[in-house]
Design a protein that fits this description.
Layout: E1 2-4, E2 9-11, H1 14-34, H2 40-46, H3 48-51, H4 57-65, H5 76-98, E3 102-103, E4 106-107, H6 109-113, H7 115-134, H8 138-160, H9 168-194, H10 199-226, H11 238-241, H12 247-259, H13 262-271, H14 278-289, H15 292-311, H16 319-334
Antiparallel strand pairs: 1-2, 3-4
Helix pairs in contact: 1-4, 1-5, 4-5, 4-9, 5-7, 5-9, 8-9, 9-10, 10-15, 10-16, 12-13, 12-15, 15-16
Length: about 325
């Protein structure tokens, strides 16, 4: 049994382990190659987050999904490079929008070089992803473009906020389906599709990825409040300090609005106040960690992870299916 990929995923078969490790190593080489430029400064900026590491969650899913066809098919590794480049590009843009200082334990690109360079570097990565994608055929281009539209739509909806009388929690879950679920779903879809898996298998794995992606992001929401050392490299309460309305905070606001308990209303006021003050920030974190809203967010995480697991039921038994099921457990474990 060997540990590979994010969350300490256990691979219990030597052949699968070899395929996954070889595939991820090829993806890493592909990322470095795709982020090279004739201009050294562009190479430095484009490789900034590549070299900082990361879980490589999406390439791992490409490799596992490819096990349901021919994992050595020529399009598997390039498609994994495409999804990871796309993901990295969004991080450059997200950090500008969120005014983030740290990403993956290193200075964010916007902190190091300024917002303009960070945005343009993200654009450079999108361009390189498109260049690789073009070699995978028009169907792959269509799938990726649709997913990217969903991703951008999710970001716009998050920025605009819920409209009219739309429930903020429902709105937020829709946002996550676009921002995170779409690209995770494409990772599974590309792996299965590029490997030549049956169309039904491709559809199952796509739906699995959509749900797992939302669960993955919800676990991050819980970790932002509950953890002492955030897996993403950010310090605990980063989203809280920046006023980003993650699921525990949305559940808190819903409880305060529905029941009007003074302690809930007071906590909402604290959360919505200026949390640049370390003492106020620490107090908000302390109170959120013992509030039922955090446990409610954990239950939502479990629900999406279990929905992802249920999608796998029709697939043939084997080590690849077991690894995908274990990823559901790992996501839930991250959320406590």
């Amino acid at each position: 049994m060997t540990v590979v990929g994010p969350f300490g995923l256990s691979v219990r078969d030597q052949a699968l382990e070899a395929d996954v490790q070889t595939g991820l190593a090829a993806v890493e080489a592909g990322l470095l190659d795709a982020t090279k430029s004739e201009i050294p400064f562009i190479t430095e900026a484009a490789q900034h987050l590549v070299l900082a590491g990361g879980k490589r969650f999406r390439p791992l899913l490409v490799m596992l999904a490819a096990q349901f066809g021919d994992p050595y098919a020529p399009g598997v590794v390039p498609s994994a490079v495409v999804v990871e480049l796309t993901h990295l590009a969004t991080l450059y843009h997200d950090d500008v929008m969120d005014e983030a200082d740290v990403r993956r334990g290193v200075d964010s690109a916007n902190t190091r070089w300024g917002n303009s360079i960070a945005v343009l570097t993200g654009d450079f990565l999108f361009a390189r992803a498109s260049h690789t994608l073009a070699d995978l055929g028009p169907e792959a281009v269509r799938i990726q473009s649709e997913a990217f539209e969903r991703l951008v739509t999710g970001q716009i909806l998050e920025t605009a906020g819920p409209q009219g009388d739309r429930d903020p929690v429902d709105h937020y879950l829709d946002v996550l389906g676009g921002k995170t679920g779409s690209l995770v779903a494409v990772s599974c879809r590309f792996g299965a599709m590029m490997s030549g898996a049956d169309e039904g298998v491709v559809d199952i794995l796509t739906q699995y990825g959509e749900r797992l992606g939302v669960a993955f992001q919800l676990a991050d929401d819980v970790l932002d409040i509950a953890s002492d050392s955030h897996e993403s490299g950010k310090t605990p309460g980063t989203d809280l300090r920046e006023g980003i309305p993650t699921l525990p905070v949305l559940h808190l606001r819903a409880a305060a609005a529905a029941h009007g308990r003074p302690e809930d209303v007071e906590l909402v006021e604290l959360v919505d106040s200026d949390l640049s003050d370390d003492a106020r920030h620490a107090e908000a974190l302390r109170r959120l960690r013992v509030h039922p809203a955090l446990e409610q967010a954990r239950r939502d995480t479990v629900r999406y992870a279990e929905e992802a697991r249920a999608m796998l039921a029709p697939l043939p038994e084997g080590y690849a299916k077991s690894a995908l099921q274990e990823l559901c457990d790992a996501v839930v474990h991250r959320a406590g």
